[in-house]
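Chapter review: from sequence to fold.
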Amino acid sequence: MQKIWIPGAMPIELLLTFFVFLLLCLGLGTLYKRATGKSIHMMIQAVGVWLIAYFILRFILYPPVPISVFSTWMGLITMVIMLYVSSTERGWIEFREPILNMLKGETQIYRGVRAVTFVALPLLVGFGTFNQIKPSVDEPIELRTVHPAPPQNTTVHGVPFTLQTAQNPYRVDDQGKYLPVGKEDKYFGQNAFDPNAPKFLQYVKEGGQVFFNTAGCFMCHGDNLDGRGPIAFAFNPIPANFSDPGTIAQLQETFVFWRVSKGGMGLPREGFPWASAMPPWEQHLTTDEIWKVVMFEYWHTNFFPRTWD
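The token string follows.
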């Protein structure tokens, strides 16, 4: 069965998607009230909104969000729903009425629902939790690739790049000419926010702004690019530690450009097994922004990219 995915894992697309579904729900609620003369039951509203949110986050958004982020969002949505239903006394009474009836079990139907709620449902949750956390003793099918082999050519935003010959257009010296790899150490430790900073550092600053603000890369890779961001340990394996000399210091600048552009999902099959939850940033950043982020990462860690010669 083909998945019903549409682009929209970034904040604006996510909000627009929820807004469209909100308008549909409001329209259905209005039609129901006109037909029956009363509003949809508060319990049905709450459960319906929760299920719609689950469906959007689980099956519609692309790239799919990591399970840790998905769980966090669903928790926040549940809290908002509970705040909404308890915002008025009438709404709260209407919402809790079927719950109280189920607990009392005055009818056969409510007694059946109570039995499922307190017996079958906990057993199912416990079984699912056990399957999630039980250790696996099976050996891996194959060893995990540390650095997947890059292709000879890649295409970003419709523009082809030959990785062996491509150059970062923002790697420039004080005269605006191309700055060879290894010559940028004079900019290490300098203030990129100085109004009189050379062009190289101005581009570094713009790359840092994308890293921390536009893309929010620091949430995974950390403020110090050490792979210890606020949500880093929700992933297995955790995001790359750029401050470790075994990561970007061992890679060509064009390799990092390719990895950032394509993300974990954009790797060719021969690159697997490569565990990475990084999204394909070419869907959310311009080519120029990606080049500047790559340059910022090297500058911040005081590493040089590897060269082909």
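Two observations follow directly from the output. The chain has a mean pLDDT of 84. The radius of gyration is 26 Å.
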